[in-house]
Amino acid sequence: FSIFKNNYIPRISERFNVQFRAEIFNILNHANFAPPTTPNNTDIFDGTGTLSPVAGLLTRTTTTAREIQFAVKVVF
Questions:
Q1: Cα–Cα distance between 36 and 5 in angstroms, integer?
Q2: Is 70 exposed, middle or buried (CB count within 10 Å of its CB: 0-12, 13-18, 19+)?
Q3: What distance in Å separates the CA atoms of residue 66 and residue 73, rounded to the nearest whole number?
Q4: Domains contained in the chain, number
Q5: Which of 76, 58, 65 lies closest to 16 in space, CA to CA?
Q6: pLDDT of res. 40
Q7: What is the CA radius of gyration of the chain?
Q8: Model-level pTM greater than 0.85?
Q9: Which domain holds residue 49?
Q10: pLDDT for 4-27, tens place per residue?
Q11: With b meaning 16 or more CB within 10 Å and e meaning fewer, what string describes 9-27?
């Protein structure tokens, strides 16, 4: 999501423009989880049929947290 505002300044020049810009990434700050982890041998159950304790565990996300950046751009 990004927004910007153009500010023309005719005192300096007819084409002189200062642009204020804000860009927002992951604006709602939702977690997007990576696929669940599996054991090293990729089996959910071990040889005895018991469930592996780390199978299906969500340990990381695929996106970063909310990021906001501001910028000023001068066009002449």
A1: 43
A2: exposed
A3: 23
A4: 1
A5: 76
A6: 61
A7: 25
A8: no
A9: 1-75
A10: 999 998 888 888 999 999 999 988
A11: eeeeeeeeeeeeeeeeeee
Here the tokens at position 45 are: 């159950």
Assigned token pair, 31: 């977690």
CA dihedral 44, 49, 53, 59 (to 10 degrees): 10
The single-letter code of the amino acid at 51 is L
The number of CA neighbours under 13 Å toward the Cβ of 51 is 5
The sign of the CA dihedral 21, 26, 27, 29 is negative
Please choose, from the candidates 16, 15, 18, the residue with its C-alpha nearest in 3D space to the C-alpha of residue 5. 18
**DSSP letter string, 20-68:** EEEEEESTT----BPPPB--TT--SB-TTSPBPTTTTB---BSS-S-EE
